[in-house]
Amino acid sequence: MVTTDVELLIIGAGPAGLSAAQYGARANLQVLVIEALAPGGQALFIDTLENYPGCFPPDSQPCSSGADLVEAMHRQALAFGAAFRTQGARSLEKEGDFFMVLLENGETVRARAVIVATGSRRRTLDVPGEQEFLGRGVSYCASCDGPFFKGKKVFVIGGGDAACAEAQFLSRLASQVMVVHRRDRFRAQKALASRVLQNPQSTVRFNTRLKEIRGDLKVRSVILEDTHTGVSWEEVGDGVFIFAGTIPQTTLVPALTKDEQGYILTDPGMAASIPGIFCAGDVRSSPFRQVVVAAGEGAVAAHSAAAYIDRMKDPGASR
Ligand code: NAP
Domain 3-122+246-313: which topology? Predict the structure, then answer.
């Protein structure tokens, strides 16, 4: 099967991959970005992007939403010469000084350096009814499915940034939002948490866990449990939005060194534990996962990859 030769292969086209693509292309590297789905990653689902520097609603064109921002980043990377392919990667192996990446279509890409920007996916709770009612009341994306719950009662499960941001979004559509969190306080940033606590459309149930989701053709109710007393009860409602954190997507790179949660460890230049592999964005071990952080890490990773490629081509060179 065909082998494509590039200098820098970027796997994943979320904000980290898109930023790396732009910086890599502007550093005069031959850049290919592969992405299994559409460019944009999880940022596509951010309804209002209020914390990306310079993107402040309501007059923040062209980046008032995550989708607006990543669309502009994609155009920018293309304009500077990065190539994009809609293709998943099946395996990645190092052969001598090169990386051989087998794509889903059987094609192989040979690259001098690779940036892993594969992001993370939502964690499921694995409670009864979660799988059964997926798409029939259970959702992991408020901006995708929220409009189906206009005037209805929904539950938001979780206490992090995603749960609070999405609860706030849902409160503009649903008649009532009940946020259910297992601990006695939110983990979310203060600005997001206090908006939920002060929102008259929302109620918050701390020290409570979701035990079961019930329904017929669609969700009708949930069973909640008080984590202190063990008492459980039924709450009627129409939707369950689950934001219980994320799982890094690292199956392609099992040999890289990771932290206890499975996120890839890098040095400050985003170099992972195998020389020539760099890592950026939500898949990387980081204390703060934000679009702006992912974009910054993508830039650093591309800069480091360019220096690495220069050294490989000419061991005496410095960038
Ligand atoms: P997160 O910060 O890891 O929070 C996950 C929440 O789910 C926690 O409150 C956790 O409870 C709860 N949880 C985990 N497992 C659970 C279980 N089995 N049962 C019940 N609850 C469970 O994840 P996230 O909110 O998805 O955010 C992911 C990353 O994206 C974070 O770095 C976040 O900062 C970032 N993000 C930022 C924004 C923003 O800036 N606007 C928006 C969305 C996401 P405990 O608190 O008890 O652990």
Answer: FAD/NAD(P)-binding domain (3.50.50)
